[in-house]
Amino acid sequence: MHFFSLGFLCASLIALTNAQSTFSPARPPALPLAVKSPYLSTWLSAGRDGGNGGYLAGEWPTFWEGQVTGWAGLVRVDGQVYTWMGLPGSTTVNQTAYEYTSTKSIFTMHVGDAVEMKITFLSPITPNDLRRQSLVFSYLDVSVTSLDGKSHSVQLYADISAEFVSGDRSAIAQWDYGVTSGGVAYHKVHRQTPLLFSENRDQAEWGDWYWATDSGPGLTYQAGPDVDVRGAFSSSGRLSNSNDANYRAISNNWPVFGFAHDLGSISSSTSALFSIGLTQSQAIQYAGSSSTLSPVPSLWTSYFNTALDALNFFHHDYQEANSLSSDLDQRIAQDSIAAAGQDYLTITSLSIRQAFAATQLCGPADNPYLFMKEISSNGNMNTVDVIFPAHPVFLYTNPELLKLLLRPHFEIQESGHYPNSYAMHDIGAHYPNATGHLDGNDEPMPLEECGNMIIMALAYAQKANDTAYLETHFTILRQWANYLIEDSLYPANQISTDDFAGSLANQTNLALKGIIGIEAMSVIAGLAVDSEDANNLTNYAHDYIETWQTLGISRSAAQPHTTLSYGSDSSHGLLYNLYADRELGLNLVPQSVYDMQSSFYPTIQGQFGVPLDTRHQYTKADWELFTAAVASTSTRDMFIRLLANWINQTPTNRALTDLYDTTTGG
Questions:
Q1: Where are the domains of the chain?
Q2: How far apart are CA 177 and CA 211, in angstroms?
Q3: Mean model confidence pLDDT for the chain
Q4: What is the pLDDT of residue 2?
Q5: Which long-range contacts (CB under 8 A, 24 or more apart) does 407-412 make?
Q6: Residue 542's CB: how many other CB atoms inside 10 A?
C-alpha cells in the first residue's frame, strides 16, 4: 500500500504546496489522531525530520514507534476524487486549518470551492467514568458542508489496513465483516495466529481490531487489496460489498478494509461517523501478591459481555463521549490559562491524552488496576520514576487513578516478592508482562524510587482525603524512609531518573528528593500512626536540609545556584525535586532557595529551554515544568514560553517527547 505513481505524488505535493493551513494553538511534532492506549496510538508526523508539516492528506499515519499504520480517506465530489487522509495516490484536498484540544484533533479542508470537510479525531478521556475510559476505542467524525450554497454529489470513503494488527508485516492477517444488533457495520481484523502477551515493534500481537461505521442504505463495504478497494471507490463511488477470503501476509497485496458512504446531493451539511478500536479479553500478565503469573482481563470485560457489545455501546455513545470530553477540554483550557497563560495551554492540551494513552485499565470493576507502559524507551511497566512526572495529571483529573497505578507496587513488595529494602523500580521489564523482580535485579534507583513512592503516597492521600491509605501502607513506607535516612544526605554513586546521563555520587537534586521524602514521611506518620515518630523524622529532615544548603550551593558564583553534585561549584542542574516541597505544603526548603534558583535559570537558557545540567545541552520537558511550577512568575513564564516555542518549531516528528536539545530543538 506504500507504492504510488510519480504523477500522483507530484499532484499531491503541488496541492500541499498551495495549501496554507493554520495550526492552533501550535503545530506539534506529531499530530494525535487515535491516541487511547499503548497499542491504539496513531499519529501524523509533522516535523521536518520525516513529516510533511502537519497535513493529513499526503502523509501516512504512523504508530507511535514510527511504522505506518495505513489509514486512508478519499472523497468524490461531483465525480472528482480527492484524498483527505493518507497517501493513496489521488489529488489532495486543501487543508486550511488544524486545531487540537486535550481530546480532539480537528482538521478543516476545502475541496476546491465546492465543499468544506471538518474532520475530527476524538480520543475520549473520561477519568471519572472508568467504564467509558476502559474502552480502547477512538472516533473519527467527518462532516461535509457545501461552500457555495449549491448542491454537490458527495461520496465519502475511509479504510484501515492490516498494518494495525501486528508489527510483523509478514504475519498472516485474518478478517471478517458483520453488523451488530444495533446497526453498526464493522470490519474485524486480527492476526491469524495470535501471540498472547507479546509485541513486535511495540505493537500488540494479539487482540481483535474493529473498524466500524453506521450501517444503512447508503453504505457499501469491501475488504481486499488496497489498489482494488480504493480503485473501486474512485471509479464509481461505491464498493462491492465483498469480503476477500484470501487471508495473507500484511504486506502481500496490502489488505485494506473500506467503507463508502454515499452522502447524496449536499446543499447544506451532513456527516459520517467511524470508530476504531482494539479488544483484548486478557490484557496483562501479573503475579502481584502471589508467585504465579496470571492473566488479567481488560476492565471493559466487567461491563460488556462481548467485544461486539462494547463496540456497539462505544459507537452509539459518540454524543455523550463528545460532550464529556468537551467539558474536560474546557476545564483544562480555563485552568491552564488562569494558571500560566496561553503558552501553558499549548503544552497541557497536547500532553494529557498522551499521558492517558500510556495506560490501560484492567482487572474486575470492584478491584481495578491501571497499568502503564514506559513508552519510547525500554517498555518497563509502571516505572515509578515515569509515574512520578505524570502523577500531577492523574491527581488533577481523578486521584483514584494514581492509587490504581501504585497498587501493584504495594502488592508485590508488601507480599515479600521483592528482596531489597528500597523501593522497586518497576513491576516488569517489559509491558504487558508484569513479572516483578523476585531476584531484585531491576534497574537500581534506590533513593529516587523511595522518595517518589513516599511523595506520591502522601500526594494521593492529601488530594483524596484518604488517611486510611497511609495507615494501610505505613510499614513499607516507613521501611523506605529508613533507606532515605541512611542515604539521602550523602547519596552513594547511583543513577537517578535521568539514567541516560549516567551515575554520579552526591547528586544535589537527588539528595533533595530524599530529604523531602523524609519530611513527607513525618507528615504520614503524624496522620497515620505516631506523632513521636513524626517528630523524629522531621528532625532528620530539618537537620539534613540545613547541611544540604552548605554542601549543594555554589555561593561564590556570580549568580549563586545549586550544583549538579556537591563541591562542583561550576556545575548546575534543574532543581526539579524542589516541586514536591511546594506540592505537599511541607515548607521544608527555605524561600531563599526558591528565589536563588529563579534568578539563576534565566542566565543559562538556550533557544528552546534550560539544559538539564552542565553535562549536556539537552533537557527534559517534564522537569522543566516541575521547575517552572515553583519558580517566580517571570522565570515560570520563561520556561513555558521556551517549551511552547519548541513544540511549534522542533524538527522532530514523533509524539511529544520529554527529552530534546535546547540549542537545535532536535
A1: 6-316, 446-661
A2: 10
A3: 95
A4: 41
A5: 407/369, 407/370, 408/286, 408/288, 408/369, 408/371, 408/382, 408/434, 409/382, 409/384, 409/453, 410/473, 410/476, 411/288, 411/289, 412/287, 412/288, 412/289, 412/436
A6: 14
Q: Is pLDDT at 144 greater than 60 in this prediction?
A: yes
Q: CA torsion 548→549→555→561, rounded to 10°?
A: 80
Task: Tell whether domain 6-316 is in CATH 2.20.25.
Answer: no
DSSP class of 498 = -
Amino acid 529: pLDDT = 85
Question: What mean pLDDT do residues 515-530 have?
Answer: 95
**Cβ atoms of 627 and 639 closer than 8 Å:** yes
Lowest mean pLDDT among 85-94, 160-169, 366-375, 382-391: 85-94
- When pLDDT is cut at 50, 70 and 90, the band that residue 325 belongs to is very high
DSSP 193-252: S--TT-EETTEESSSEEEEEEE-STTEEEEEEEHHHHHHHHHHHS----EE----EETTS
- Report the CATH number of the 446-661 domain: 1.50.10.10
Q: How far apart are CA 217 and CA 194, in angstroms?
A: 35
pLDDT of residue 4: 33
- Let me know if 439 is exposed, middle or buried by CB neighbors in 10 A (0-12, 13-18, 19+): exposed
The secondary structure element, H or E, covering residue 264 is: strand 255-266
Size of the chain, expressed as the number of residues it contains? 666
Which of 3-7, 21-25, 248-252, 478-482 bottoms out in mean pLDDT, i.e. has the lowest? Answer: 3-7
| Residue 564 and residue 614 in contact, taking contact as beta carbons nearer than 8 Å | yes
